[in-house]
Amino acid sequence: MLDISPLKTTPLDATRLDATPIDAPRPLAASPLDATFPLDATPPLAASPLDTTSPLDTTSPLDPNPPLTASPLGTNPLGATSPLDASSATDWSPTWTPTWGGPTASDYERALWQSLSGEAEPVTLHGEDGLVLSLEVGQYAGHADAVDRDLLAHCTGPTLDIGCGPGRLAAELAGRGIPALGVDITPVALLLARASGATVLGRSVFDRLPAEGRWPYALLIDGNIGISGDPASLLERIKALLLPRGATLIVETTAHEVDERHRLRPAASVDQAGPAIPWARIGPGALRSLAEPLGYRVTGTWLLGGRRFVKLGT
């Protein structure tokens, strides 16, 4: 769901660059994207904060169930010898607390684990300018709801879910038979996403990704237009990932018109030293003013369930 690295960071993990790499994906015989959407044959950079042990296998980088024996979790609380099992995960009462990353990562990842037992609490972030932002982790970690399903009806081909979080949207698309790849930098979110059936990759949107320049659909949902605190740079980066013509980017904006830049800290460390998290909040009008100079066209906008969406075309 939220995907940020430094100046390309997510409010959920401002210090992920020094984290332990997650497992490198194993090649599959038939990747969900290989059959209908060939992937970039150029090997990606090996400097991703979550994939430094081995370059991504370009023949089939999308392994939905890598082994957990080398997971950054250390001992897998659900069984270290087999992939995370979604059915058993729902009955597991989490007691483990993440140890990597800063306070934001810990709060967010702890809330994700709590979501397995249905007890996730919102994570509160405070802006240096007085903004209070609540992250509804329980919603992110749940199944796609009616509003999600409606917006996903616009995605009829291979889809890149940027800041996928626990993977509810990528999993829903996979259930519809639509190839989808989620990208995120939070290890717990990636594990839960794989458990839900989503295909995910542990990278920032600003890292090298498969099929650059050939994605027909991309998603920026749950406020992820705020990633990096610089929506214009984010939109420019995503445009390089999409097909030059005929591609669609669906963005969830604020329901009302705003155009804000913030520096956020988790509630527990508002008065502590350390880097704040750059973040942005923009409404549909501000999105249009940023997107059109970059070559996007606004092809639709709608409000459903109190959530505002804007459809951009290349």
UniProtKB/TrEMBL annotation:
Keyword Calcium applies: no
Single Gene Ontology MF annotation = methyltransferase activity
- Bias type Low complexity, positions: 86-103
Residue stretches of biased makeup (Polar residues)? 50-62
> Which biological process terms from the Gene Ontology are attached to this UniProt entry?
methylation
Which InterPro entries does the record cross-reference, listed alphabetically?
SAM-dependent_MTases_sf
Region Disordered, as annotated, extends over 1-103
Protein name as annotated: Methyltransferase domain-containing protein
Q: Which top-level group of life is the source organism from?
A: Bacteria
Give TM regions: none
Q: Which Gene3D superfamilies has this protein been placed in?
A: Vaccinia Virus protein VP39
Annotated keywords: Methyltransferase, Transferase
Q: Which organism is it from?
A: Actinospica acidithermotolerans
